[in-house]
Amino acid sequence: MNDIGEVLITLARPVCFELYDVNRDAGGFILIDRESFNTSALGLIVGQGDTPVQQRLWLADAMEWLRSSAEHPIRSVAKVASWRVIGSATTMAVAYAITGDLRVSAAIGAAEIIAKVVLSYTHERLWSRVKFGLQGLSLSGKTR
Questions:
Q1: Full-prediction pTM beyond 0.70?
Q2: Contact, 59 vs 91, CB < 8 A?
Q3: Which residues pair with 42 in a beta bridge?
Q4: Is residue 140 part of a domain?
């Protein structure tokens, strides 16, 4: 406990990462115990057993896997819309259970829909300015 050391970690499946000195956001990690959910360790990625070229190829493969999907975009839109209906209906039901007033619960539900549409749009526009995950870019935002 509370020791500092250098370790080699082997993973069961690929994960995306960058070296800490290249990208501080993607170069750190936390290990969580599956049973207690306590933090077991944290660390910085300072290297990998493979060569830098193999690291980049591995990262490119992992990013391609994340981009590929069998779902059609229309399915994603339908899932978002159905989730929004469920979320808003739940908000209105909880508001009605608390207030006992149908008008108040409808007003809360309408305000929630408007607020979340505005927040979602703003969130999407902010992400349009972030270079993370765009084709031809590494996790650090530098072109390859």
A1: no
A2: no
A3: 30
A4: no
